[in-house]
Amino acid sequence: MISKKHLTDNINFFFDASFAIDKDGKVIAWNKAMEEMTGIKREEIINKDNYSYAVPFYGKPRPGLLEVFIKNNEDIYSYYRNLNIEKNKIIAETYSEFLNAGQGAHLWVVATPLYNENKELIGAIEFIRDISEIKQLETDLKKSNEKYRNLVEQLNEIIYEIDLNARVTYISPIIEHIAGYKPEEIIGHRFTDFVYHDDLEERMAQFQRVVTGVQDYTEYRMVTKIGNPVWIRTSAKHIMKNGKVVGLRGIICNINDRKKAEQNLQKSEEKFRALFENMQDGVIIYELLYDENNNAIDYKIIDANSAFEKQTGISHNKSINKKITELLNLENAPYLKEYEQVDKTNIPYTIETYCKLLNRHFKMDVFSIKSGQLAAVFEDISERKKTEEQIRHLSYHDNLTGLYNRSYFEKEFPNIDNATNLPISIITADLNGLKLLNDTFGHIIGDDLLKFGADIFKKVVRKDDIVARVGGDEFVILLSNTSQKAAEKIIDRIQAEFDNKQIKGIKLGISIGAATKTYENENIQQILALSEEKMYKNKLYESKKTRENIIQTLLEFLNNKNIESKEHCDRIAKLSVQIAKKLNLHKEQIEKLKLLATMHDIGNITIPESILNKPEKLTEKESEQIKKHVENGYKIASMAPEMSHIAEEILSHHERWDGLGYPRGLKGEEIPLLSRIIAVADAYDVMTNDTPYRKAMTKHQALEELSANAGTQFDPYIVEAFLK
């Protein structure tokens, strides 16, 4: 973050030609290096707009690279090549025919935004460096190579970093494929330890040149782990920290095969043909066709390897010497301008493209072989693109519902806040009873509820509206150009869909809120907060209604499946009340006991009916599953305020007085009193009524059984009160 004054004071310290503009496109800074490059003095250009800064470079006003941050117009990229776009930095190359007294110059350009101390965009700055000498060296090198030698030179790039003491601080793992060393065997050592002795002097000289600011490359031999020399090519540039050079970062290319090819080129063309044919990537050689005005009008294929034929299905024999327009039945040759630029400038061209005819994605590297001839290397990247798209989709979508996720919502939420989108309505929604459904019927049923809700949201909104799942049971819908009234109609449709839907016989519930930004000066975050506030107010009522509905449905479900009949629960309630009165319990405890008698086995809803009603002896695994009903009942009761006060008693009603019960092995008076009462009443009722696996006892036999187990299974004092 920087102020205009700070920028003006410091820009002259930059070695590169540099200038800056404000948000209105006016030049606010123009350093001495820029004066030297263009011949335009600072006082002649400051406060001028309408792209005046571009005239010394291009002979006319036109937007510079830094305008991308001001105007957010990616059409500007068409003026540049070799673009490298990062979050707050764009690097590119271009050509000016007006610099250097009309001899022209190749330029390396870096643009970055300027922010003030409040992180507000105040303008942008552009740094420009003349790289004509480097480009000339690259051009001379390319002209000196033969076509197959150029192909090999594209392979095996390695990233490395060294400090100013020539010690390696990083090298990418692919070095092992070239030299046999693992990265850790090189990092920390001086790079000179790995240079072939005959090449050491030149390599050190190149290192010193780059450190002092000269962009340079060199070719030398590196000694492999087994002692063999291997040819590599290195280039490097400064690593800057706090304005100082702290090291070099560069690329190593394995050119060993190229060097061997150079040595053997005259001996056998067949060897290079074999290399050409056996490359995994498709390679095709073009000849450009020019008109009398030296403008490219078409190109034809003069050679192609078998990998290209395999990738594209285009027959080698049928394609040779065919114009591309004839071969593909096209009116205009694809990429003709780009190919012409490569031929005339010797600057390689790389693009990732989709071929509709083949339904495949390709990365295409095009470079000049000699005047009028180009080589294009085709790498099939369809699988990579598919994977990238899957990753991109997963990173912004909820895997269960297919809706956008919180990450996407947070990314797009600021973008919708635009005057062209007014009015903007925000709907927030929360599915009621999701946790209760999950704990009662399992997450599959809960997932069904989430997917149903997602389907409804997608059904009632427009295609371009944003629907996101931002939490477990929370959703947000962003509606551009939608009034409050229109949003309320959407809510009515959502509510109607939920009112008509049941899962496991349970009527679904949803809490919804909505708020609308009508005027540009309203804060979108406050609109979201207002929508959430309305939703939570609605949830206070809707959640209670949903819970009551779920619990009532569960009870009906229990009765309909004959897992626990209403008559059985009524009998237990009657017996329990009789015991409670003999124990002189107060009215509130008796009322709590009645509810417990009704709900004590609510957890059985989660146990398969085939196990609950099985007439044969249960297996050990089935017995363990039966025992889970107390814990499941506890979870269900805990989530409903109307039942939470009996959750502990539900959990404990199968504990034993002697501590041998379940699930916690409580003993004696550690067991809640009401649970001990229910245990006696439940046992007596089960013994005196028929079950799927046992005929009823007589009342006398049941009382004897209770008496025999008093002090072991049952509280002896409660049994004594019951016997009276």
From TrEMBL:
Coiled coil in keyword set: yes
Boundaries of every HD-GYP domain copy: 543-724
Domain GGDEF: 422-553
UniProt domain PAC: residue ranges: 92-143, 216-267
InterPro entries with a match to the protein in the record: Cyclic_di-GMP/3'3'-cGAMP_PDE, GGDEF_dom, HD/PDEase_dom, HD_GYP_dom, Nucleotide_cyclase, PAC, PAS, PAS-assoc_C
Alphabetized UniProt keyword annotations: Coiled coil
Coiled-coil residue windows: 134-161
Residue ranges occupied by any PAS domain in the UniProt entry: 3-48, 144-214
Protein known as: Uncharacterized protein
Taxonomic source organism: Candidatus Syntrophocurvum alkaliphilum
